[in-house]
Every structure is written in C-alpha cells, then in structure tokens.
Amino acid sequence: MKKKIIAIGLIVTSIVTIQSCKKDKADKDADKELYSEITAGGYSYYQNGTLLSGVSPSPHGSFKLRFNATASAALDSTGELPTGSSFSTGSIIVKEIFSGSSINLYAVMKKDPSNGNAGSGWVWAEFKTDGSAAFSTSKKGDGCISCHSGSPNRDLTKTFDLH
User: Fold this and answer.
1) Please, what CATH class does the domain formed by 37-162 belong to?
2) CA spacing 20 to 30 A to 108: which of 22, 93, 122, 143?
3) Alpha-carbon distance 71 to 86, whole Å?
4) Boundaries of every domain in the chain
5) 127 alpha-carbon distance from chain centroid
6) b/e code 58-71 from CB counts within 10 Å (16+ = b)
7) Nearest alpha carbon to residue 124 among 36, 115, 70, 132
8) What percent of the chain has pLDDT over 90?
9) Cβ distance 153 to 84 under 8 Å?
10) CB-side neighbour CA atoms (13 Å) of 84
11) H/E element, 65
C-alpha cells in the first residue's frame, strides 16, 4: 500500500512538472511571436516620432509611440483615438522607451480579446531590445490595466490625454 501511494505521488509530481514546462514554453512562444510582430515594418509614429516625456505616475519614462496599420485606422484627423472609441482587433501599439538617445524597452499592447493572455481585451508585454520578455504576455496586463483604466475612456490608452 505504501509503495502504491509513493508511486501515485511520483506520477502526479511528474504530470505537474511536465504541464508546467509546457506552459512555460507556450508563454515564451507567445512572447516571441509578439516581439516578432512589433519588429516588423508597417508602423506609423504618433506626433511624427517626437520623443515624449513620461508623465508621472507613468513608470515608462521618455518614449516614442507607434501604431500598426490596424491601430492607425482608428485614429481621427488629429492622430488620436476619439474619447469613447475603441481600437479594432489586431491593433498594436508600441511604446519605445528611451534611456538617453537609445531605446531600452518596448511596452506593447495588442488588441486581441480572444487571446488567452488578454487582460481587458489587450495582450500586454514589455520587451528588452534583445527580444527577451521583461513583462510576459502571460501576466495578462496585471499591473498595467489599473493605471490604463479611467476617464476619459480611450480604450485603455493614456498618451492622447497626456501629450
């Protein structure tokens, strides 16, 4: 009886370990896929690529903001998302965060409500310039959404009201 309990315990431990490894790989694959999307061409810059200062309490610092074509299509003639409007699924917003004159981090939002890693309809991530995740998509925007929520409602984006 004691040997059966030990054997069952070992089997359960093995299954949990294998599942955990599969999830880690899936998370890394999701991060790599999103990084690949943000390093592809076809983005346009907010305010012609002007370096914008970080506004407190933002943790991001100075940045440039860029949009893929899907996100750009939602912007009005002033280059901003109108209050109460939403970005379409597939929209990607990339905040290039600078240290001095160099990019040192990418903060990313991708509108993908059906994605298992989405938080409030967006997949959130931060990447170092080497492509490694500083904030994984698997965190589902934990720590981001609360700051990005609020009034006025511009689909969880803040830049239009701060700059």
Assistant:
1) alpha beta
2) 22
3) 9
4) 37-162
5) 9
6) bebeebbbbbbebb
7) 115
8) 69
9) yes
10) 0
11) strand 63-67
55-82, pLDDT tens digit by residue? 776 788 899 999 999 999 999 999 999 9
Position 58: which residue type? S
Write out the H or E segment, with its range, that includes residue 123.
strand 122-127
Cα–Cα dist 55/122, whole Å: 22
Give the three-class secondary structure for 47.
Answer: helix
pLDDT at 56: 73
Q: Are 47 and 80 in contact (CB under 8 A)?
A: no
CA 8 to chain centre: 40
* CA of residue 31 relative to chain centroid, distance: 9
Segment holding 103, helix H or strand E: strand 102-111
- How many beta carbons lie within 10 A of that of residue 57, not counting itself? 6
Per the listing, tokens 């970080």 go with: 54
Average of per-residue pLDDT across 30-39: 96
The pLDDT, as a whole number, for residue 59 is 80
97 CB neighbour count, 10 Å cutoff: 19
**Both structure tokens of 119:** 């938080």
- The amino acid present at 160, given as its one-letter code, is F
